[in-house]
Design brief:
Helices cover 44% and strands 17% of the residues. With 242 residues, it is of the alpha/beta class. It has a single domain, classed as 3-Layer(aba) Sandwich (Rossmann fold). A 7-stranded mixed beta sheet has the order 3-2-1-4-5-7-6, with helices on both faces. Helix 3 runs antiparallel to helix 5 and helix 4 runs parallel beside helix 5. InterPro entries: SAM-dependent_MTases_sf (IPR029063), SAM_O-MeTrfase (IPR002935). GO terms for molecular function: O-methyltransferase activity. This is Catechol-O-methyltransferase. It holds the Pfam family Methyltransf_3.
Amino acid sequence: MALHQRNIFTIGQIGDGREAAAARYVVANARPGDPDDVIATMDRFAYEESFLINVGDEKGALLDAAVARAEPRLALELGTYCGYGALRIARAAPAARVFSIELAAANAEIARTIWAHAGLADRITCVVGTIGDGGATLDALADYGFGPGTLDFMFIDHDKSAYLADLRSVLDRGWLRSADARSNSGCGAIVVADNVKLPGAPDYLAYMRAEQGVRWNTVEHKTHGEYQTLLRDVMLESELLS
C-alpha cells in the first residue's frame, strides 16, 4: 500500500499497469458513444478486475447531484486520473465544457481514450500540468476562455495536500461565479472535494468550516471510500457565497 501511495504521488498511477488495462477494458466491453455504459464498465472493472482510485459509484452519485444543482456551462476538475470524474460531470451537465487538470501525461492519454469511446471527447479537455506550477497551467486555462466569474463548478480530487492552495489560486483569479452573479441555477459556483476524510485534507476541511456562512455554504456528505463500504469518507460540497 505504501508503495502504491508513493507511485500515485510521483507518477500518478498505482504502478502495475491497471490504468491502461482499464482503458482497454472499456474499449473492449463498453458500448461506443454511451457514457452511461462507459461509466458502468469502469465501475465493473474497479470492482471485479483491479481497484481504481476514481471517485466511484457511491460518491459519484453525490457528484452528479452537485453538478445538476450548479447547472454549469464551464466546469473544472483537478485530478483527471482515468477520466472517470470528468466523464460523470460531462454526463450530468450536457451543456457544459469540462476541463480537467492532470499531472501525468500517461493518465491524460488514458482519459482521452475513454472520453472518445464515450463520445464526449468534443466536450472534455485534459490539460497536462498542475495548479501549483507558478501560474503556467492557470494561464493555459485562461487561453481556453477562463475568466472572471466564468467558472460554475469545480471538482477537487488530486493531491490532498494541495486542495486548499489550489482552491485559493483559482479564487485569486476571480474565476468562480459568486452567488450574486446571474446564473441558470441561481446559486454561486459549487466546489466539490473528495477524500476529505480518507486519506484526508484537514487544512481544506478546517478552512471550509471556518468560512461557513461567510464566504462558503458547505454540506459535509458522510460516505465511504471508493468501491467499498467499510472505510468511511467525507465529501464536501461548497457553494461560493461572495
